[in-house]
């Protein structure tokens, strides 16, 4: 069976839609986009504000023949794929905040939510969800609980086609997944570090209700954050972690 790209008018969440499709046998590479999400989801149980015909809400299903522990670097890899896509469209100055926020001018431009399916033997089913702010309507702006930016304000003179953006993002995600399956995070590490906005910054990491302060020192070859703390350099996986620049 061939991979498919489904474009929906409205959905609860493109990630949820694709997880359901995966249970019904959707193949690796299948993608879903929607004009609006009624239950758009962000990391750490947050909501993702998803107004109609304004932004990009896209998910891709991929089957990885990797032990789940090796999948940790995937969300960083998708960050690299998105920066590549934006640069390909002439949008510069976008950096990455570990684990996987796309940030420009100190404000969030895009987010990534990766969900790993239950193990049933065989390949691991992974749903990769991406939200890119393109032209956020002023009416919903106040619902967003963090500083944000959209492509319209970054490139006011450019005509931003969401179709073109979707095509380029999709192509970069497909290519990055295929490469990650072969090489793991290692092959992406230098590029990730080139876009790393937190390097050498004092940060506060919240991990299992504990706040840990230190200076960010990039990532190791599986994508864990290296944090220079009073107790020496410690590494953190992306699990239930949030990070703030102090
Ligand atoms: C985050 O930064 O918290 C992650 C946001 C991910 C949002 C996207 S929009 C498409 C896909 N469907 C969802 O429900 N969430 C992701």
From TrEMBL:
<keyword id="KW-0805">Transcription regulation</keyword>
<keyword id="KW-0092">Biotin</keyword>
<protein>
    <recommendedName>
        <fullName>Bifunctional ligase/repressor BirA</fullName>
        <ecNumber>6.3.4.15</ecNumber>
    </recommendedName>
</protein>
<feature type="binding site">
    <location>
        <position position="108"/>
    </location>
    <ligand>
        <name>biotin</name>
    </ligand>
</feature>
<feature type="binding site">
    <location>
        <begin position="13"/>
        <end position="15"/>
    </location>
    <ligand>
        <name>biotin</name>
    </ligand>
</feature>
<comment type="function">
    <text>Acts both as a biotin--[acetyl-CoA-carboxylase] ligase and a biotin-operon repressor. In the presence of ATP, BirA activates biotin to form the BirA-biotinyl-5'-adenylate (BirA-bio-5'-AMP or holoBirA) complex. HoloBirA can either transfer the biotinyl moiety to the biotin carboxyl carrier protein (BCCP) subunit of acetyl-CoA carboxylase, or bind to the biotin operator site and inhibit transcription of the operon.</text>
</comment>
<feature type="binding site">
    <location>
        <begin position="41"/>
        <end position="43"/>
    </location>
    <ligand>
        <name>biotin</name>
    </ligand>
</feature>
<keyword id="KW-0436">Ligase</keyword>
<dbReference type="GO" id="GO:0004077">
    <property type="term" value="F:biotin--[biotin carboxyl-carrier protein] ligase activity"/>
</dbReference>
<dbReference type="GO" id="GO:0005524">
    <property type="term" value="F:ATP binding"/>
</dbReference>
<keyword id="KW-0067">ATP-binding</keyword>
<keyword id="KW-0547">Nucleotide-binding</keyword>
<dbReference type="GO" id="GO:0006355">
    <property type="term" value="P:regulation of DNA-templated transcription"/>
</dbReference>
<dbReference type="GO" id="GO:0005737">
    <property type="term" value="C:cytoplasm"/>
</dbReference>
<feature type="binding site">
    <location>
        <position position="37"/>
    </location>
    <ligand>
        <name>biotin</name>
    </ligand>
</feature>
<comment type="similarity">
    <text>Belongs to the biotin--protein ligase family.</text>
</comment>
<keyword id="KW-0238">DNA-binding</keyword>
<keyword id="KW-0804">Transcription</keyword>
<keyword id="KW-0678">Repressor</keyword>
<feature type="domain" description="BPL/LPL catalytic">
    <location>
        <begin position="1"/>
        <end position="181"/>
    </location>
</feature>
<dbReference type="GO" id="GO:0003677">
    <property type="term" value="F:DNA binding"/>
</dbReference>
